[in-house]
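Lab meeting prep.
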Amino acid sequence: MQNRHVHIVNSLLFVLLLIFSVPGTIALRYILMAILLLLMFGNKDGRADFRSMVKENRPLHGLLALTAWLLLQLLWAGFPLEVLGELKGQWLAALLCFGIGAGFALSKQELTAKTGLLHYVFLFGLLAMVLDYASQFLHWGWPVSWSGIPVLANGLEIKSRIMASKVQVAYFCTLSFVFYLSELISRLLYRKRLVPVTLPVLLLALLLAVLLNAFSGARNGFVGLSMTFLSGLFLLFLFEKKTAPVKKAAFMLAMLLCFAGGALLNYKLDSRWDRFLSSATIGAQFEESQAWVDPHKWPYPLLADGKPVDVSAYERMAFLAAGLDYALQNPLGSGFSRSAFMHEVEQRYGGKARHSHSGMIEFMIGMGFPGLLLWLLALFRLLSLGSDRLRHGIDMPGLWSVLLVLGFSGRMVVENISRDHMLMMFMLFAGFLSTVLYRETSRDL
């Protein structure tokens, strides 16, 4: 009976993780979440596990403190009904996903079985996107040009038909990359095998995560992958003690060469890098041009050589600069909402504004600085759990937790990934890893 219960939970979780990024599945997502929570915590043992998890999970304590602050903000929120709806539809859903991740970690099965399930989720998702792109290539031929995003023979940019945007493709690829990179480092240096998969499959999954990110045209996604990779190397230098210096240096050199090759390839393929710095400089002076507010109403500024700015670099820097300015004007925040930045822009410029393309800015304006500090505290607690684990030796859960937090928090600065299913997926993995690390630590004591 217990094995059947575990099998049902694993099957439902597998489906949930796969449909998170598929458009039009919101209702199914919530149905699966409700069933999973009921199965995980609906019986006596589950409730005991839940109480134990709430008592010992310090990242969750930070999230609960943040929840109290977000509720307090209703007293002065500019749009209290909107904020209340966002708290229910966004924040509460994310907390429930944290609970699902923790419940999965508490399930009565070996850790290798749990990571094996997650491996199939990531690999299946990557292969589905490969087949999607391959079918487009077979129909239209190999891309005829490549200016950041591959352009097919029909004149259209290649787009995923599985996920709604290139940001979501890059996000899934980054999650996959972090998962497999952590396993690869742990396996090569410490011969610790936690994910039940052969080395060729592991390397294939890493390669697919990089290539799919490149095909998506998400430049910030590639930067995120690169920074995650460098963070992994830094962690090795910081915590790895047992490997001989020569072997360690050779491994680092090989990884750096791979990184340099990928970075050079991305620079050559994406012509936008040539105008990045000058475009970002103009964007930082957000009050001098308003094309970032509405490009249909105001023209984009020109560079010194008369060429148009790199729109992405210009707009993202303008969003960051303007968002920081608005947050400083209202340090206690305007209330948790995906529209916090948009309300500020509309109040000043009128018309229909766009979101800031930065989760950090959205949190800063909506949560205020106290809320942002509580969010960062929760992330830091998960980060410190992983780093404490790494002090006792490099292994997959420790590396994964640290790289997950570093990658997500860094990506939040330049992408609005702290919303919708992307926030839910992060919280699910955060709940899983924090609970795994606490359980493993308690067993060692």
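Slide two material, second protein:
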Amino acid sequence: MWLKLGESEVINLDFIASIKKNSGQPTIEIIYQDLNNVKSLPFPGTEERDRAFKAILENLSRMKLFFE
């Protein structure tokens, strides 16, 4: 299953181990299942990062409800 992040980022959820906010920087880290591949999505500030993270969680929740 694919998840679109913004206008240009698309990730395949089948290979994702976790998605988390980086507490030290305004970024969201996407960690792949092999644990060696990490994608970091930068944001101008923590407020923008938090809004994007909340949107990701809401989309994942909607997808889960849809498939149940």
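Talking points for slide two:
The CA atoms of residues 56 and 62 lie 10 Å apart.
Residues 1-64 form one domain.
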